[in-house]
Amino acid sequence: MGRIIYVAACIFGPLAWGLVAYAVTRAVERRRPPAPPRDKPAMPELEYYL
Amino acid sequence: MWHVLVGERLISLPALALCGLGIGVIAGMFGIGGGFLLTPILHLIFKLPMPIAVGSALCQKIGTSIASFLKHRQYRHGELRVDWIMLGASLLGVDAGTRLLTWLSDAGTFTNAAGRPVSIVTITLDVCYAAMLLFAASMTVNAVRKGATDKRRSAVGSRLSAPALVRVRVPPYVGLPSVGIESVSVTVMAYIGFATGLLSGLLGIGGGVAMLPVLVYGYGFSIRDAAGTGILLLFANVLVGTFEHALRGNVDLRVALAVLAGSSIGSQIGARATARLSSQTLRVSFAALLLFTVGAIGVDVVRSLS
Looking at residue B242, what DSSP letter applies? Predict the structure, then answer.
């Protein structure tokens, strides 16, 4: 039974989180509209790292 | 003094540091974390049990991923909103991946054609690795063939036909102002986060090797924005993943520290070496490296099954 509940949480959890993230993002946007993108400082070629 | 007992095997720390150095050079050259190489190497060459290889590989990435995150924030690369949308689902995925790994470890062995026992967790993870690396290699080969450039990708916002995942319309939607994308599906992005977390917990990778193609080819991010976008998420993944694996006794700090010592130096060497190579040469070499790793894993699978 516990495993079934866990699998259900894995299926619906991301959807629930997506809705929470959406609501928070919208609320933040309403309080503070996004600023236009600024110029980014130059970075040496391929000096990024995942 | 220079050897440690991990599982039932005596492992040389200098050899681990040397391996870390090599992975660091590759990681620095190609702009990736190298996690997709580390776990197979720890398992195939150093013969560490798969769960310990996964846990220790995740642990050594805590240091490298926080350094990368700070660097990308300094250059203002990426879109933090993506990290936020994926975060909760991704952490759920890490937990699911760790549980799945434990479950596979407990599943034990099966007998191959020659009557020898074969570990279910090893075979399953080898197949997952091979599939994921083939996916990344095919994306890279495709990009090499098309001769796509960063510049063209960064101009994606002005293109008439949007990239594949931007076209998926499952509400609700948000905009990604930092990378010039008007609206993307929050739901789709959350499930991608879950998949990234699952891979991280199961395979011991940061997730960059899977996330980068999704952001670049699926959403049309420039490579630099994609690299800067995943970092916070990957840091959270490796932190939570390490914690979960540590609770299950899968993290060996000595292994993680030895590899980290080598990879810190190697990544600096690799980043400098990059300046001497063209972008196209790097892409071809990266695809060749991925295919070589797939080949090594394939040989291991065939050897186990025969």
Answer: H
Q: What are the structural domain ranges in chain A?
A: 1-34
Taking the C-alpha atoms of residue B251 and residue B243, their distance in angstroms, rounded to an integer, is 9
Partner-chain contact B81 A25, CB within 8 Å:
yes
Counted residue by residue, chain B has a size of 306
d(CA B118, CA B103): 16
Q: Which of residues 1-50 of A touch B (CB under 8 A)?
A: 6, 9-10, 13-15, 17-22, 24-26, 34-38, 40-41, 43-50
Calpha distance B35→A50 (Å, rounded): 9
Residues of chain B with Cβ-Cβ distance to A21 below 8 Å are 84-85, 87-88, 186, 190
Q: Is the dihedral of CA B181, B195, B224, B76 positive or negative?
A: positive
B177 interaction partners in chain A (CB closer than 8 Å): 34-37
Amino acid at B36: F
Q: CA-to-CA distance for B8 and B13, rounded, in angstroms? A: 15
* pLDDT per residue as tens, chain B (306 positions): 688 888 778 889 999 999 988 888 887 777 666 777 888 888 888 988 888 988 998 888 887 777 667 766 666 666 888 989 999 999 999 999 999 999 998 988 888 888 888 889 888 988 988 888 888 788 777 777 766 554 445 444 444 467 888 888 888 998 888 888 888 999 999 999 999 999 988 988 877 777 877 888 788 887 777 777 877 788 888 899 899 999 988 899 999 999 988 888 887 787 777 667 776 777 788 788 888 888 988 888 888 888
The ipTM assigned to this model is 0.77
Q: Write down the domain spans for chain B.
A: 3-305
User: Closest-CA residue in chain A for B194?
Assistant: A14
